[in-house]
Protein 1
Amino acid sequence: MNHYYQSSSPFILPVSSPAIISLLLKVNMDLCS
């Protein structure tokens, strides 16, 4: 687990989670507007 965490970016999260995806989309739209 720790090796996988370090080999990936520090911002490792369950990207498959709809909440994370919707949050990223919201932030992205806020930055673009």
Protein 2
Amino acid sequence: MFIESDIDFHLTLAEMSQNPLYALMLRGALGGSISAGLLNQNNHDEHKRSLIFILIF
């Protein structure tokens, strides 16, 4: 079950990466989550909010 959903997720990412806009959004989201992980916990919620905003729009 987990493997199937994993494959679906990767296929979706591959499809999205074909579209430059989605690829840019995905890169921004990944970069944001990485920088949020590196920053201290005080700024973590702020970055999570901006990530959610990026993913919605």
